[in-house]
Design goal:
43% of the residues lie in helices and 13% in strands. The protein is built from 15 helices and 14 strands. Strands 8-9-11-10 form a 4-stranded antiparallel beta sheet, with no helix packed on it. Strand 10 and strand 11 form a beta hairpin. Helix 12 packs antiparallel against helix 13 and helix 14 packs antiparallel against helix 15. The protein is extended, with a radius of gyration of 31 Å. About 6% of the residues have low confidence.
Amino acid sequence: LQWVEEPHSLLYNEAIALLLHLDILKRANSEESSLAISDNFAQNIQRVISGEVGAEALESDESPDVLARIASREGRKRWETVLHFLVGSDYTHLRSEPLPQHVRNTLLAANLQEKSSKIGFPVITTEGFRFLLLDEYEQLWRYLRAYIEQSKDPDNILALVFRLGFLSPGRWYSTKELSRNQQRVLQDFADVGIVLIDPPSPVHELNELGKRGKSSSTLPNAVMVTDYGESLLTGKPQSSKLIHSEGNRQGIIVESTFRVYAYTDSDLDIALIGLFARLDYRMANFAAGSLTRSSILGALEQNITAKQIIDYLETHAHPSTRDDENPTRSRVPETVCDQIRLWEAERSRATFEPAFMVDLFEDDAQFAKVVEHAEKLGCKLWSSAEDRTLVVSQAGKEQIREFVNQIL
């Protein structure tokens, strides 16, 4: 091989000869430099990684193609439920039961949500809004990573992930070779659309999938990988369904009057836009609203930045807003971008820090001495001679207290 330097070619040739002798490598063709992993070694590596991957495929009344389509629809529905919860929108049209606690905990652990004392329930973070702009493949991997990191048995989960990676979508596989913990993990995976299980979780009614009858056991007897799971486990990214796809003429138009028009039929897209825009009305594949001071400030309160809002509007702009003569020109009116930044700047006009107030001075002379001393120390924040009131920083609190006791 060309990348092997001359001084090391002897070691390389010896290593290759040994790997060929052990039947780990084989010649890919007649060329001496073309190598491939031998079939036997590849199969054994597969079994080691997955923990004896030969899962038993079960009989089904439906064809694999039909089951794959059903699994794809159910997987998408469950993952969109998670995203709706992350945005803070209603997801009862997708799921009648509350989202499981393990999903909520994972979103918090991944820093996609944080608990808010003001409103009493979790809100999306800056990182969470950035998460929503990723494609589904990256979203699922990030979620899975956070799920594994907070687990007490990550090795067991990774072994299950490797095992699932070798299953074909659209087919049911027996779970009898899995440990009880791995079967419970399958239930968690089913809640976010990575797999489907049979019998289904009590919160899911999948009658069209349950052709073989249900077991009374609370643990799944069979598992099917969805196309979400296949994408996640085999490294084949899903094509994102976000409204920035220009092929279907969907996207957002922002006018200089701050009016917003979104051409999309996705509930999730509308909910995402509703994070920073006031939505006035909606039709089957269209929604209209406005960017207002209160809607932008509300988004800022949820840790969404002005830059993220502007970037989102730019990225998901309707194809008709493209300027072919000047492709680099902003697809969002500059006046709108500037105003969004100004609304964000409003929140930075005042800063808060701990302070210490001193009042009830006996006379103006005493007050003037303390103010002068505070100025020398550099801890004076504010004073009023008329009210004989002084406010100093927390750092200078004790020194001012001692000085006041000395002159009394």
